[in-house]
Amino acid sequence: QVQLVESGGGLVQAGGSLTLSCAASRRTVSSYTIGWFRQAPGKEREFVAAITWSGSSTYYADSAKGRSAISRDNAKNTVYLQMNDLKPEDTAVYYCAARTPNSGGVVYIPPNYAYWGQGTQVSVSS
Prior knowledge:
Elements: E1 4-7, E2 10-13, E3 18-24, E4 33-39, E5 46-51, E6 58-60, E7 68-73, E8 78-83, E9 92-99, E10 115-116, E11 120-125
Parallel strand pairs: 2-11
Antiparallel strand pairs: 1-3, 3-8, 4-5, 4-9, 5-6, 7-8, 9-10, 9-11
């Protein structure tokens, strides 16, 4: 079983920045693709960004391109999501998720991830 713990959320003014962290409980997660998703009240969970185990490939939702950067430190079993120029519409609970190496399908669909964290709240004031 893999446990994921998100941190780094908070309240920030529009135009500000936050860096979210996703810490994994097992070193084997270093071979997993890690994704970040978010869910606002009354909305479906949506993809934000993902990174492959080596970090050689990254993926971003259109809403995150140019404003976000995903990275990982496998020695620390941690993945980061840096978010800049935050907007009120970025307000949501942010989740990290892990998909095993033999998982099929695309990285931006939640059911393709086996493990999920509990989420961290990001609130952006106007």
